[in-house]
Amino acid sequence: MLCQVYRSEKKQGAYLYLAHGKTLADIPEELNALLGQCVQVMQLNLAKRDKLASQNIEVVKQNLKEQGYHLQMPPKAAVQVLEYGK
Fold first, then answer.
1. For the chain, which residues make up each domain, given as ranges?
2. pTM score, two decimals?
3. Largest Cα–Cα distance of the chain, in whole Å?
């Protein structure tokens, strides 16, 4: 299963996986607005992989099969809150 991976120029840390044969014109308009300009960074053959660095490969494959794309958003930054005694 081949896919192209694009990096969003607008949303730092966001990546879009597109199923083979799909183009950026095929993604929903709302998603296009969120991501803005995208740059292709790699092509992956998911059939030759058991896992991905930060995504569940089975979820990625399922999304590519069902909707033609998978959106990887940046991880949320952990916020630590210190409580001070009174």
1. 2-72
2. 0.83
3. 62
DSSP codes of every residue in 54-84: SS-HHHHHHHHHHHSEEEEPPPPPP------
Tell me: domain 2-72, CATH 3.10.510.20, correct? Answer: yes
Positive or negative, the Cα torsion across 53, 67, 18, 11? negative
pLDDT per residue as tens digits for the range 6-37: 999 999 999 999 999 999 999 999 999 999 99
Question: Distance between CA atoms of 70 and 5, rounded to whole angstroms?
Answer: 9
Show Cβ contacts of residue 2 under 8 Å, excluding neighbours closer than 6 positions: 19, 20, 43, 44, 45, 46
